[in-house]
Design goal:
Elements (H helix, E strand, L loop, with lengths): L2 H4 L11 E2 L14 E5 L2 E9 L2 E10 L4 E4 L3 E2 L6 E2 L2 E2 L10 E5 L2 E5 L12 E5 L4 E5 L2 E2 L5 E2 L2 E5 L2 E9 L4 E9 L4 E4 L14 E5 L3 E8 L4 E9 L4 E3 L4 E2 L6 E8 L2 E8 L7 E6 L4 E7 L12 E7 L2 E7 L10 E4 L15 H15 L20 H113 L2
Parallel strand pairs: 6-12, 13-18, 23-27
Antiparallel strand pairs: 1-30, 2-3, 3-4, 4-5, 7-8, 9-10, 10-11, 11-12, 14-16, 15-16, 16-17, 17-18, 19-20, 20-21, 21-22, 24-25, 25-26, 26-27, 28-29, 29-30
Helix pairs in contact: 2-3
């Protein structure tokens, strides 16, 4: 592999996608696969192509940009028997979720030929390269695909999806990875409409945020938030750019930024790469691509990677009329820790402050995730006080941002007022000139009217003169005739 491939990340511009110069064989193009980055390697598992589910595991070395196939072995046959039948340990699968847990990849849900009615949790051990099924107990959710799965501490939070009978879901299920016990989260308030192929992220290990997705006839662009302590749903208004509905998009969060790429509405792909500030709930368009670009695809994946100490976003696959297997990378602009970015408007800042205040006023008797398991945890007031103090700092920062924005707007308003005064003077001058021109035009119109009258009078005089000329001509002719006749008589009568 050439040195150019090894140094691909050295000259990337911020917030711009770049196709990586991958050499050699590539995985089969696909969509609705799963992806995660571990130790500078991008792992791709399963997916779908031309209606066929895939079962391969591929790894891309992000240093030298070379792909390799991961060959897996299985556990003993006895470990994979359930209800007297042999389980398919790692089947061809699509629409599943995958995340890292210890030295393992955990895979949940997805559509496959597995006939189990309940959801299956599979694992891939990256050290031993052994694949198997993790047995779970409790209130095991129904099998599904297109769900979202988020990791909070040692618990997996699964929302929504579509079951084998194409029934749409909007339930919340929690799996404790330490006990492998499933529980149902009994939420309150209005949940999101049942959906699948959405994306999810967790903010400050407390707020589960759901964006987009679709039903069988409707595509969504809404944001819903579940407080994992109170288990209350909310539907906050998002500030910033209004974006089109989409499903099959992918998201990954870094600090307080949630990056979202791809998706579509079965007619066209979403061209924008979005970033949501999860603390202020401000959504903006980071960059856009052309139509038919592989990044404007449904069933795409996006992962966060650290290479040589630098943070990158890595996107792979998707379908936009064609199946894709290109790899794209973006270097997100790092967070400015010294000077927080001032929000675009005072209204947005006020909205952000109100959201933060609402978070700070969460009930002191609220439930955490362990309340789902009917266990009691003693509340650590010092932690709550610390959280409130931190949120107070955020509120103070928000107020400072509002004041700074107000000062800027006042300066702009003064400048606009000065410009308005100059324009008013110029307008009065122009209006005076117009009045003078109107007066001159009125005088000209009067002169023209008088000239027209004179012209009519001259035409009458000309007609009279013409008549007189005609009469004079007739008279002269008559006189001439008389003279000629008289002269002849005198001539005849001369002696």
């Amino acid at each position: 592999m050439g040195s150019d491939n090894c140094n691909w990340h050295s000259d990337l511009d911020y917030d711009q996608w770049v196709a990586l110069p991958v050499a050699g064989p590539r995985p089969l193009a696909r969509y609705k696969h799963a992806a995660v980055v571990i130790d500078e390697k991008l792992y791709i598992v399963g997916g779908s192509r031309n209606g066929r589910y895939l079962s391969d595991v591929q790894a891309l070395d992000l240093r030298n940009l070379s792909w390799s196939t991961i060959k897996l072995s299985t556990q003993s046959e006895a470990d994979n028997i359930r209800d007297g039948r042999l389980l398919e340990v790692f089947p061809a699968i699509s629409g599943h979720s995958m995340l890292k847990w210890g030295n393992r990849l955990l895979l949940l849900g997805g559509h496959s030929k597995d006939t189990s009615d309940n959801i299956t949790v599979r694992f891939i051990d990256l050290e031993s390269r052994v694949s198997g099924v993790m047995e779970a107990t409790g209130k095991i959710p129904v099998a599904r695909g297109g769900q979202s799965v988020s990791l909070v501490g040692s618990k997996l939070i699964m929302f929504g999806g579509e079951d084998r009978q194409r029934r749409l879901l909007n339930d919340v299920n929690v799996l404790d990875l330490e006990t492998m016990i499933w529980n149902v989260a009994e939420t309150t308030q209005s949940p999101p409409a049942p959906r699948f192929d959405h994306t999810a992220a967790v903010h400050v290990d407390r707020y589960l945020q759901i964006f987009g997705g679709c039903s069988h006839s409707t595509f969504f662009n809404d944001l819903h938030v579940l407080d994992l302590e109170t288990l209350e749903w909310s539907h906050p208004q998002v500030q910033g750019n209004l974006v089109s509905p989409r499903a099959g998009h992918a998201g990954v969060s870094i600090d307080e930024k949630w990056f979202i790429v791809g998706g579509g509405d079965n007619k066209s792909g979403a061209l924008e790469t979005l970033v949501l500030d999860m603390s202020k709930l401000i959504l903006s368009v980071l960059t856009s691509v052309e139509r038919r670009d592989p990044l404007a695809s449904e069933g795409i994946t996006i992962s966060s990677a650290v290479v040589d100490g630098e943070q990158f976003l890595v996107a792979f696959g998707g379908y936009n009329g064609n199946y894709n297997n290109e790899v794209f990378a973006m270097k997100p602009k790092p967070k400015d820790s010294k000077h927080p970015k001032i929000v675009k408007s005072s209204a947005a800042a006020a909205a952000a402050a109100s959201v933060t205040a609402a978070y700070a006023l969460a009930k002191s008797e609220s439930l955490d995730l362990t309340s789902i398991e009917n266990s009691k945890t003693k509340v650590d007031l010092s932690v709550e006080i610390g959280v409130i103090k931190e949120e107070k700092k955020v509120l103070e920062s928000s107020i400072a941002w509002v004041k700074a924005e107000k000062s800027t707007l006042n300066a702009k308003l003064d400048e606009i007022n000065e410009t308005h005064a100059d324009l008013s003077k110029e307008l009065h001058s122009v209006q005076g000139q117009l009045a003078a021109e109107k007066s001159r035009c009125a005088n000209l119109e009067t002169q023209i009217s008088e000239l027209q009258k004179m012209l009519l009078s001259m035409q009458d005089i000309e007609q009279k003169v013409q008549a007189l000329r005609s009469q004079n001509s007739a008279f002269e002719h008559h006189t001439t005739v008389q003279r000629q006749s008289s002269g002849g008589v005198w001539r005849w009568m001369a002696p």
